[in-house]
């Protein structure tokens, strides 16, 4: 059961800005009722009061319901264009608090051996693209830098300890609201790498043996090829991917190479 402290204006911030849920036994408390909003969490059902799954609200608004003994009080967020803005946002109908939807940051590493003749790749054990090879990467955690995130992901996914050497590439994928940052790095414990919870297999590939047709994501291909063309300098590639193909994620038997638009810069 999920609750947030009873408040009107701060409710907006605690629920949507920081996504903080407080379990409490207070008689006057707020509980999420249910919603269907493409900006926040599309088509997601959540537990309501008493642990019962509630039906989704059929409009594009987020509703919060108070479980006070004095009756039901609804708090709602509607899509509107705030004053001075030019985009639709979620706006609180009571206090006019505006919720901004920002992209997720993914941090990863193009990690090579000490001799720079092999590349570290992991075979995914989880969706999306389970069974395909990818560069160690993942979403940033709160409170860490992109560099720390890249090193943490390499450690979590294949027990690799990485020394970073600088940024390799930054890729924006607007269709899924993600910004990918790949660093250059060296594996300093090459003989200790192993498959962990999120990986089926780990390998150090020679550059002439990279399984290009089995790479999980287009950005992996882009980052590796850029590294190979700039192995010893600090050049950073920044691209915006306008040809992102969702089929490559959800149809495991079909591989759709993505042709990036090289004329656009993030």
TrEMBL record:
InterPro entries cross-referenced by the UniProt entry: NUDIX_hydrolase-like_dom_sf, NUDIX_hydrolase_dom, Nudix_N
One of the record's GO molecular function terms: hydrolase activity
Gene3D superfamilies, sorted: 2.20.70.10, Nucleoside Triphosphate Pyrophosphohydrolase
Record organism: Reticulomyxa filosa
Hydrolase as UniProt keyword: yes
Name used for this protein in its record: NUDIX family hydrolase NudH subfamily hydrolase
PANTHER family: NUDIX HYDROLASE 23 (PTHR43222), NUDIX HYDROLASE 23, CHLOROPLASTIC (PTHR43222:SF2)
Domain Nudix hydrolase: start-end pairs: 102-228
Keyword Hydrolase on entry: yes
UniProt keyword list: Hydrolase
């Amino acid at each position: 059961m999920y609750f947030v402290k009873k408040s009107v204006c701060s409710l907006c911030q605690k629920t949507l800005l920081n996504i903080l849920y407080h379990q409490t036994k207070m008689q006057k408390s707020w509980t999420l009722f249910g919603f269907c909003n493409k900006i926040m969490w599309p088509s997601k059902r959540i537990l309501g009061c008493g642990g019962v799954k509630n039906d989704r609200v059929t409009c594009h608004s987020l509703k919060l319901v108070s479980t006070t003994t004095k009756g039901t009080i609804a708090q709602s967020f509607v899509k509107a264009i705030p004053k001075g803005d030019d985009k639709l946002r979620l706006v609180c109908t009571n206090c006019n608090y505006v919720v901004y939807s920002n992209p997720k940051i993914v941090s990863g590493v193009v990690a090579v051996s000490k001799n720079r003749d092999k590349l570290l790749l992991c075979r995914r054990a989880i969706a999306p693209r389970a069974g395909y090879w990818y560069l160690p990467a993942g979403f940033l955690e709160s409170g860490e830098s992109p560099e720390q995130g890249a090193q943490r992901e390499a450690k979590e996914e294949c027990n690799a300890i990485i020394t970073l050497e600088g940024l390799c590439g930054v890729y924006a994928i607007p269709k899924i609201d993600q910004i990918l940052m790949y660093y250059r790095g060296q594996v300093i414990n090459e003989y200790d790498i192993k498959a962990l919870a999120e990986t089926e297999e780990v390998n150090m590939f020679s550059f002439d043996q990279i399984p290009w047709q089995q790479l999980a994501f287009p950005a992996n291909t882009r980052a590796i090829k850029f590294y190979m063309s700039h192995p010893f300098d600090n050049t950073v590639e920044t691209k915006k991917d306008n040809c992102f193909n969702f089929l490559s994620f959800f149809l495991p038997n079909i591989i759709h190479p993505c042709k990036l638009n090289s004329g656009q810069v993030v």
